[in-house]
Amino acid sequence: MNTTIFSRKLKRKQSSRADHGGAEGRSVKEEGSDLIIRLPDCIIFSPKRKRRKGGRADRGGAEGYSAANQGSDLISRLPDCILGVIVSLLDTEEGARTAILSRRLRHIWRSAPLNLDDRLPTSYVDSRRVKAISQILAAHPGPARRLAFRSLHTPSSLSCYDDWFSLPMFDGLQELVLHFPLAEHPKMPGSSLRFASLRVLDIRNFTFPDSGCVPSFPCLRNFCPSAR
Amino acid sequence: MEVDKGKGEAEETRKVAEADRDTVTLKSSDGKLFEVSKEAAARLSTVLAGMIAGGSIDDNGTDLKQIGSEALENVVDYCNKHANSIPSAALISSSISFNTAPFKEPEEWERKFVDRLSHDALFDLVEAANFLGMERLLDVTCHKISEMMKGKSPDQIREVFNIKNDYTKEELEEIRQELAWAFYDD
Hints:
Chain A: It comes from Digitaria exilis. The complex is a heterodimer. By secondary structure, chain A is of the alpha/beta class. Chain A has two domains: 4-66 and 74-81, no CATH class; 114-226, no CATH class. Helices cover 27% and strands 11% of the residues of chain A. Chain A has helices at residues 4-16, 41-44, 80-88, 92-97, 108-111, 126-139, 155-165; strands at 114-117, 144-149, 175-179, 200-204, 222-226. The model of chain A is unreliable at 1-69 (pLDDT under 50). Helices cover 56% and strands 8% of the residues of chain B. Chain B has one domain: Potassium Channel Kv1.1, Chain A. The model of chain B is unreliable at 88-100 (pLDDT under 50). In chain B, strands 1-3-2-4 form a four-stranded mixed beta sheet. At the A-B interface, α1, α3, α4 and α6 of A face α3, α7, α8, α9 and α10 of B.
């Protein structure tokens, strides 16, 4: 099991777990179970949740939940790594907006691998879209897991691809979706051939660049060329 | 798929499990026993796979103290349904880590499986899947939770999940400015 992200989270958890979890923040480790070494890292510091039945009044005492909150805030109790998965399944803007929900969720989007999808409002012109994408790239420290560009179509926007793709945050990119909205078949930026860890490549109305060498994606599992 | 509560029946279950090594017996935090295909358990849960390989499976019911009987019943149900409905090739591709693998949309039966769960049961299942290292089940349950957030305003999301807004006005304004590009439609 690849626990890279878990380990990264673990570091943060170790330094920050006093902030949340409070009275209920006993770690699994304290249970003395011999199963501990088999657990995914992120669960080790996951707050142990009391059973809701019969224990509702106790919940979250140390975390200061208000009495006005009738139900239980179950989502905030999930470990960061799980919250990160949930948030990165949302559209980019929607994912980032989760920061405003509560302090617990403030840093989740930034700490989860980026899923950058240019599904911005259709009224956006290319220049506004490029500006928004640049802001997203500035707001997220990386790494990026997925990149999907489907709407940029002016030559000046396409020239941004090379600048963006060269950023270190894309070194470990897993999925690249590159669609050109018009049937003109421009060349893909040369830097798009550098993603050795790519597992999914979905290109539409683009042609491979003339790099003099055959593109190599050793991890590719899913290749979806369409319209050429 | 609760196997049993009574002692006599537990003994019977143990004998059956011993005779037929195709299954393992799991015990929930509240002492209920559940039987699951050993093959499916090992394939879908890295933790159970490790326990089976390491010989630490208890024929009388392997203690899973972190998982209540409702959640464990759902886990076992999922394993059995998964074993019956997914061709083996698909399983191989789903065995890579959920954090790095391309996300694969839930199958129709997986959607139905999580759709029928109550709010509480869904979150219990997320935690059980996390505890047992069940990546596919985590994907499916996390997908369901993200679906519950999609298309909603921050206030609506807070309402659905009972999230308390513990920010000050100033902090809210600061975040809105920091992430102005994400709040274009407000």
